[in-house]
Amino acid sequence: MDVGLFGQYVMNGLMLGMMYALVAVGFTLFFGVLDVINFAHGDSLMVGAFTGLATYLGLRELGVVWPAVQVPVVLAAATAAMAVAGALIARYLVLPLKSAPALNTLLITLMLGTVLRESIRLFYPAGANPKPFPALLPAGAVELGNFSLRADNMLMLSAGLVVIVAVHLVINRTKLGLAIRAVAQDEETARTMGIDFTRIVLVTFAIGSALAAFAGIMNGLYYNEINFGIGLLLGVIGFSSAIIGGLGNIYGAIIGGFLFAALQTIGAVALPFASAYKDVFAFAVVILIMAIRPTGLLSEKVSERV
Amino acid sequence: MQPKTGERPSLWPGLLGIAGVAVYLIVFLMIESQVGVAVLLVGGAAAVVLAARFGALERMRTSFAGREGSMDIAVPAAVLALVLVFHQDHFTLLLVATVMIFMTASLGLTVQFGFAGVLNFAGAAFLGIGCYTAAVLTKNTGLSHLLVILAGGVMAALIGGLLLYPVLRTRGHYSAVITIAFTLLFKTFLEVNDALGGPQGLRVDGLNLFGWAFNDNIALTETVELSFYTNYVLASLVLVCLGFAFLRRLDRSWIGLNMDAVRLDETASACFGYNISRWQITAFTVGNFLIGMAGALYAMMLGFIAPTNFTFGDSLILVSIVLLGGIGNPWGIAVATTIVIVLPEKLQMIQEYRFLLYAAMVILILLFRPRGLLPRPLRAYFPGWQPK
Amino acid sequence: MAAQVSAVPEPVLATRELGKRFGGVVALEALTLAVAPNEILGLIGPNGSGKTTFFNVVTGIYPADGGAVTFDGRDITRLAPQGVYRAGIARTFQRSRLSLPLSIFDNIMVGNHKRLTQGLWFNLFRRRAFRREFEESYARARELVAVFDPPLADRMFEAVEGLPMIDRRRIEICRALISRPKLLLLDEPSAGMTHDETTQLMDDILQVKDSLADLTIIIIEHEMGVIERITDRCAVLNFGRKICEGSYQEVAADPLVQEAYLGLE
After folding, report:
1. pLDDT attached to residue C8
2. Domain, as residue range, for B166
3. Does C94 touch chain A (CB under 8 A)?
4. Number of domains forming the structure of chain B
5. Is B233 among the domain residues?
6. Helix (H, G, I), strand (E, B) or coil at C156
7. What is the pLDDT of residues B1-11, one digit of tens each?
8. Is B319 within the bounds of a domain?
9. Which residues of A touch B355 (CB under 8 A)?
10. Predicted pLDDT of residue B155
11. Which of A38, A75, B375, C66 is most buried, judged by most C-beta within 10 A?
């Protein structure tokens, strides 16, 4: 394979990996504080992307055409909207089912995902069709032989990295992060230490969902197109990444995200005739990893208390 | 809770209930005007609320539980009455048969997550496996169609086994994500696979059992002819009755108990010797077998199948049926399937919104009535059995 | 050495240097303990001293990090919970773990798993044989419930979720006893009960033990009165180590034990 094509694959894998990692971190955060799996997470990403798109269109109507303004406003609107949505989901759908069987939480979030997906399809203007997503980032590129390193991709990767480092710092260096970790360790002890459990859960869901919105915007910018169905597969991939990394472990989720993207890329290289099979390949490997190491590569929260 | 010794509950509330539902359904299926349908819906809901308010539902429930043998005859008899009324109406008979085929599939899903707690969000995919198996076998082999239906079930069970064996062997809720991924990939697989007709799909031969061609209308006399869908209604009635009887036997045995125990508390059941994956795998396999058989029959009835019939949304509809009806209760399945399948066909207004509507409905059910419309009763190994 | 071993009866359960860590926390440290046939051993110690962890390691829920467990002359250290149960050890849980939506009878039958026929064919198609097995199981379950909770003996097909905690704890003991285990592990059976209810429960346990020829019991308990009245011997744990072993009087007089308890007051 020539260098240019190779570079293209690597770049593509890194971009996908960054998106998957951002989604997977959300899954792992939710699982950490509440032992639940939020299957609406992928659709939060999708709604985040649509919120960003709508914000962009609104700005254009208002005559704001400078990317330097558009990008931050679009990002802020999408992440803020999803943060609020995440907290609402936690407050009204997930927490009420806390003492019900775990299956019920899974089902209710899955159904919520369907509601979000269908709502966009039915109620967003012509929502059933794919929507072009504006190229808001500078279009320049550095030519390295026959491989062009695009500026927008580099910007997105760096931004993703900044976000991940920021999450790391929040979790490990702030009082809020300490509280989140305490709740993840042991809810009852955290409560007796005076931590407001409900507040921590809501904040965690807000953070996780904001990350999904960020990934949604990245997705739109990268593919220049979004549609109501993107969240479903991205959610499943994000969850699989979180599992192979070890649910509850943030670094595992990040590694898992990049690993999944690597698998897909390898699949695409190995099976160039049918791109549909690259996902089959990636999921097959995930099933294999789960069969060999059911707790994931970096397992964290082990068994329940007996 | 326990019935008083020697006193069997009356038959009448149950029979009246069945007759009422049958008459209501006949009127509902006959009516064409959208306003009429809407009025009838409101009326039906009001009747149920009133019946619950004045204890009529409770009396029906006791009657159903205590006089099971009679009810088991009365309900299929009501279905046959429905067939007689609509004997020339292709559309309605197709709808009735579809309801019963989906009932069978939902019974399979009930064994999986109603009993053993194994989530399966690939119900539509396994239905599709049954369909495509039937399509391929009827086209390429001269296999007896009875065996084709069985093969549909075996195929679904086998592929399900390949898919989940590694996951269930190690336990966990991961079956959810694997089955979702499978549904998404299954549709793509069908679309890119030219041997299976690609996005255009495949034609399927009609059912033919020992020379009885199901796709021919039945001429009773010179003038009276039954729609050929009558055949399929009868076949699906037989299938759903078998599924129902099987589910009941399973539930009323140690195996039903094992599945419940594994679902409710894996740690405790491990401490009492339960091989957790054995019961999860049993449930998953048996359930997919039922779903696959339903699929094979479905394909032969439709005569034509395409990948768009087997999307994730369709899988979620199956899940909605099970949750709505009351997890683990086969009578609940019967009620919920009828509502979920018939409603969008009659009320065109909601056709487009059905995924949204059912998802929202399930959210409400989970929040406010997690045991569904007809909650599952406690296990009675031998109904009416009294300790000596 | 050999003479010494034959002097004491062969222990039913013996652990040697048993260890368990959770991350950096040592939950059990080199625990060596022998339980004689037919005795009732009390396991006491402050909260977090490793008592429940001991049960969880013995029953195979947590794998041991080191050491060995011998039961009935057989090494069971590496057995999964299923194997431990088959070998003849049954337990109750600190937080009641009944299946709430199921009936009393169903819950007890969960404990009877190894004595029930599990084949698909038998369960689905040999209904007459199944009925016989069902009726026998019912009679045995009813007999047990009649000892521990007489009013419930005629309500065997009611859901457990409607019952108060005291009844649930008693049913949990029935569930553990129905398979006729050789060793019964009781994890704080009296938690949440009043003094009188506890006394009643202990009487019932003693009565059942007398009626069953071959039953050894290890009981975790905070009520010192209970320990004093029903145990033959006690072992005291603190920070995962055994600090003392002997009759209740001996243990209560031990300065290390007093320190362990007073240190936490």
Report:
1. 60
2. 88-368
3. yes
4. 2
5. yes
6. coil
7. 444 445 778 88
8. yes
9. 114, 118
10. 94
11. A38
The letter for the amino acid at C155 is R
Distance, CA of B288 to CA of B320 (rounded, Å):
17
d(CA C91, CA C102): 19
Q: Is C117 on the interface with B (CB under 8 A)?
A: yes
CA distances from A12 to A268, A287, C110 (A): 11, 23, 53
C-alpha pair distances (Å), C108 with each of B275, C158, C218: 18, 12, 21
* Residues B188 and B285 grouped into a single domain: yes
Same domain, B345 and B294: yes
For residues B144 and B173, membership in a common domain is answered with: yes
Chains interfacing with B (3 or more CB pairs < 8 Å): A, C
User: Is residue B4 in a domain?
Assistant: no
Give span(s): CATH 3.40.50.300, chain C: 14-88+181-265
Task: State the DSSP code for C8.
Answer: S
Q: Which residue of A has its CA nearest to C53?
A: A306
Q: Are residues B79 and B92 in the same domain?
A: no
Distance (Å, whole) CA A225 – CA A244: 29
Q: Does C59 touch chain A (CB under 8 A)?
A: no
Inter-residue contact C235 to C221 (CB < 8 Å): no
| C137 CB-near residues (< 8 Å, 6+ apart) | C109, C112, C115, C116
Of A107, A112, A287, the CB nearest to B167: A287
Burial of B324 (0-12, 13-18, 19+ CB in 10 A): buried
Shared domain check, B53 and B136: no
Specify the pTM.
0.89
Q: Which residues are paired to B203 by β-bridges?
A: B304
For B386, counting Cβ atoms within 10 Å of its Cβ (0-12 exposed, 13-18 middle, 19+ buried), the class is exposed
Half-sphere exposure of C38 (CA within 13 A, CB side): 6
pLDDT of chain A, 306 residues: tens digit per residue? 677 778 888 888 999 999 999 999 999 999 888 888 888 999 999 999 999 999 999 998 888 888 888 889 999 999 999 999 999 999 999 999 888 887 888 889 999 999 999 999 999 998 889 999 988 887 777 777 777 778 888 889 999 999 999 998 998 888 888 888 888 888 888 888 888 889 999 999 999 999 999 999 999 999 999 999 899 889 989 998 998 888 888 888 999 999 999 988 888 887 766 666 777 788 888 877 877 777 777 655 444 455
Neighbours of chain A (3+ CB pairs under 8 A): B, C
Element (H, E) at A298: none
Last residue of a domain, one of B85, B118, B153: B85
| Cα–Cα dist B54/B62, whole Å | 15
Measured distance CA(B182)–CA(B156) in Å, rounded: 13
With CA atoms as reference, report the closest residue to A237 among A86, A26, A81, A29: A26
Closest-approach residue (CA) in chain C for B375: C101
Contact B231, B208 (CB under 8 A): no
Q: How far apart are CA A6 and CA A12, in angstroms?
A: 10
Contact B362, B324 (CB under 8 A): yes
Residue B331 to residues B217, B241, B260, Cα–Cα distance (Å): 31, 12, 18
CATH code reported for the domain at C14-88+181-265: 3.40.50.300
* Neighboring chain A residues of B170 at a CB cutoff of 8 Å: 290-291, 294
Most B CBs within 10 A among A28, A88, A89, A111, hence the mutation to make, goes to: A111
> Between chain A and chain B, how many beta carbons pairs sit less than 8 Å apart?
108
